[in-house]
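Example (one chain per record):
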Amino acid sequence: MKKKYLLLFINSVSSLVIAQRTNLAPSVPVTDDYHGIKVVDEYRSLENLKDPTTINWMKSQTDYANSIVGKLPYKEYFINERLKFDKRSGYWISDLKITRNDLYFYLKKSSDEKVQKLYYRKGLKGKEQLLYDPETFVSTLNTTPREKNNFNINFISPSWDGKKIAISMSENGKEASEVIIMDVEKKYIYPQVITNLEPTSVGQIKWLEDNKSFFYTYFPVIDPNSTEYTKNTEVTFYKLGEDPKKRINVFSRVNNPELGIDESRFPGIVPFNQNDPYFIGNLGDVDDYTDTFIINRKDFEKGTKSWKPLYYKEDKVYEKKPVGKDIYFMSGYHASNFKLCKTNLENPNFKNPEVLVPEKKEEVIQSFEITKDGMYYTTTKNGIEAKLYLYQKGKDIPIKLPFIAGNVTIEAKGKDYSDIWIYCSGWANEKTRYRYNLKKNIFIEENLVPLTDYHEFDGVVVKEISIKARDGEDVPLTLIYDKNLKRDGNNVVLIDAYGAYGISNKPSFVRSYLMWAKKGGVVAIAHVRGGGEKGDRWHKAGYKETKPNSWRDLIDCTEYLIKEKYTSKEKAGLWGASAGGITMGRAITERPDLFKAAVIDVGSTNTIRSEITPNGPGNIPEFGTVTKLNEFKALLEMDAFHHIKKGEKYPATLVTAGINDGRVIAWMPAKFAAKLIANNTSDNPILLKVDYQGGHGRGTDLMHAYGIVGEVFGFLAWQLGLPGYKTEN
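Predicted structure:
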């Protein structure tokens, strides 16, 4: 950057900081009484996203943020580098589905395209054929014409024989989808368009063996800002050619009042095999465990409502796969690291089943697939060291992987086939796909996309350690940096953490992290409690009343990095998203002195109000409810908004929101930013950026997505002083 431009940039930032403090959000305090405890909410008015005052303030703050982050030099570097990588690889493929008759369906995007298109081929080496381009899709929900098509294919589901395929599309980062059905051979699109579903998150699309009908979960309301959104969803049975509006409701609160289904639970059908004698229905929410019901297929076909309980949450059944009259499952019952079990569906016993693979002491069972040859399953240690096993004829057989992998996933054709593939990846290893030959005990590389040479990342070091938290617990910590790094306390560190829902921060090839490391920065991934890195106990040690462990683990990891001279308080920055907003928001409100900068990306920062948001009731099992005193206190403790103190000096903070976000409603980050701006006494900028083209994700436009991620790294590079990108505030 030229010196003249740098000075202009510095001056513009300084003037904008002053201007921002004269453009505070309107504050009309409201006092709520929870169990006799009075809580003042200074920015309740911002919850009305249709109020012109709220709209104007959010847009003015977004304009202000854009005027700064849009000029950051690291953003330009990031976008150019990512486009260079894309051009080098040429294209990429995702969402591969292989049918029993060896048809490959997948999404593919070349480096010069904006969205993925649907392709298929007959066998691995078959000729590739284009099936569908989402730019040709015309929404049935639009009442006004639009100049630009912003739809993206977000899910595909071929029928058992591969002659039909369901194609799901969403717009501008929304999770609500519209689905069309295609005849593959004729490339004929059926005129009926199915609406009001979210197959990427709930229900999916599950074909029956007639290849003409399927199940999906219907959402009566798809407006993410409506309080009725996500309520009273229903499993729908659909037959090709029928009017989707004349739904056949087969499993729901309305259809099955005798089951006592809560309006906020998500009914869905468990994946099944052809000709399985039963259908199994889940009542999902964010909990790992579910209340689950079963119906005899013959009763279903006759229209008899004979659903009955199969098991409840307290039975701690995790992932499950029915096979005929049996069901195989992962059990967390008296097994924090899970065990693999089996029971009979006609006389089930989930608390005392047949145990196939007992719980392992230091490995957490992650997933499993059933094949003709046995049951393959994966484990992880501390969420970062993956292993593969085969359970066959009563024997537990370890399988040596092609290379030491941080993460392994399994892909299989089904119970009647030997075909098995694995995907291996790591922090510094691009995901690689292998077919496993059991007879020869060898792996054969079968990548659909050739691996790319990333010579720019040569010399990157990945270091896996554990640090002692304040209560003596060992917290895994991943460090990514260049081999020439000097531990002199002067390195910029980006610390990533999540810590919710039992989700592990698994090793994956994140180019943005490696780019940061090669520019002289350090990436630290803190595997805090609330995640699943050490099994169910690790999850339960960071939710509801134990939630403070999540952000205090993060704080302890940061203090370790400072003590060991990886960084200093003036060089430490945070980045977290969604439920990770609790971890990040409370870290900077509990220890504002410890961090120089933070990015809270579509973050949950006002948890005592989350229950009244569209997605809130479904999160009660994870975070709690204000209707119970102990859980209200836990929610208040994890509420970053209510821990902002007047007169405190807070780190530079970039807060983002998605206007189409159905998971963390946009007013939640807006309220947090408004209060932070009003109470902060440091000279650090507080920015609120609302994405008007996206939701909880990054939207459909690749350049738009790269721009957003580039701004995150650009903001941290600017505030932390990354070498070559250091400016003054």
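Caption: The two ends are 16 Å apart (CA to CA).
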